[in-house]
């Protein structure tokens, strides 16, 4: 408690909005070890309890503090297959439950420590391809997102011959096609996939597989296809050119950075335009940051729910619940008008192109019958001028037919849209169930 929390912080705004490089900076080795020393090895480690993967933060923080970098990585990797991903994009549920956060709102910097440990492991070659004895059984993984990759990795280590079928041209799922490069450089994904291939996992790209037509010749199947259906907004004018689902922007921009070309007619770009983002979550934030880097004129973000409280805690939603407090991301810092309690009524256009969105301030009142509060008007309709609009309102939970006993569903495909760390935990659980299923029939 005598050492203050110090975060690495972000690159200067005027610098980072000029490119899609990662915005987060790093601390030097001495300062990183000092931050790890803040972990108090609590009698009840709530960080371990809060993490969907069960990461043992006190153990690897202690190893990091002592300079035992390889031991720190081994402890971290025992529960987390790909800490280079979560170390960059996880909202750090562990930090929200850190005793230091509960006492003085200055949690141990677990997420940054995690990223630093893993990069040191790659740099020092603590991470190296391994070969595993094969058991003669084959498993197909459908979908190469975080859940599928973890399932494939775990099953491969147990000796199964694993083939991953991916509908896109590269692996990663939303890690690659939903999260901008300024949060997760795609070379980080490529590095891990190359390792998995060296260890014997087969990847088949541009290969869409339907649940009712699974490939033959496998002892078991893991369905990890995520939540492909985004929540749409079916109000008048939805067909206007300039209204896009968020992933139409994010996925295309990542593909452009990977070298893919699009015609001017197909290109989704905010360059020189007033931008409206509908949806107040992380995906909406990613649209804001991407719009700035494309050269937009302005960005407005609206959210139908009320404005969260100004942190550090919400008295109406105390620990151990996740704190519902106002979150300001690096993208928000780059410039954005943010509004809450705003309902979208209509998309307005001219000659088939979007020129604005009619919205109305609303409020919420308790439902006398219980359940979801009731929306009530709280102001007159108005028009927000924009030439391009991104819908970032989440995803619909997929529905699956009844599957045979040897088919296991995991990640967002099973639970609906959630965090990458939860998808990874679900993939790990699926691998365990597959192994138990096959071993019982051995």
Provide keyphrases for this structure:
five-stranded parallel sheet; 17 helices; alpha/beta; globular; 442 residues
How is this structure best described in words?
The protein is α/β, with parallel strands linked by helices and 442 residues long. It is built from 17 helices and 14 strands. It has helices at residues 13-16, 29-36, 46-50, 57-65, 69-77, 83-89, 93-96, 99-104, 110-123, 146-157, 174-177, 186-198, 246-257, 282-294, 330-333, 412-415, 420-440; strands at residues 138-142, 161-165, 202-204, 220-223, 243-245, 274-278, 298-302, 337-339, 342-350, 353-365, 374-377, 382-385, 388-391, 407-409. Helix 10 (146-157) packs parallel to helix 17.
Which secondary structure elements does this structure contain, and how are they paired or packed?
Blueprint (H helix, E strand, L loop, with lengths): L12 H4 L12 H8 L9 H5 L6 H9 L3 H9 L5 H7 L3 H4 L2 H6 L5 H14 L14 E5 L3 H12 L3 E5 L8 H4 L8 H13 L3 E3 L15 E4 L19 E3 H12 L16 E5 L3 H13 L3 E5 L27 H4 L3 E3 L2 E9 L2 E13 L8 E4 L4 E4 L2 E4 L15 E3 L2 H4 L4 H21 L2
Parallel strand pairs: 1-2, 1-4, 2-3, 4-14, 5-13, 6-7, 6-13, 7-8
Antiparallel strand pairs: 9-10, 10-11, 10-12
Helix pairs in contact: 2-4, 2-9, 4-5, 5-9, 6-9, 10-17, 13-14
- Range of helix content: 25-40%
Structural class: alpha/beta
* Beta-strand percentage range: 15-25%
Unreliable stretches (pLDDT < 50, length at least 5) are none
Total number of β-strand segments? 14
Largest sheet: 5 strands, parallel
Q: What is the overall pLDDT average?
A: 97
Q: Provide the spatial order of strands within the biggest beta sheet.
A: 3-2-1-4-14
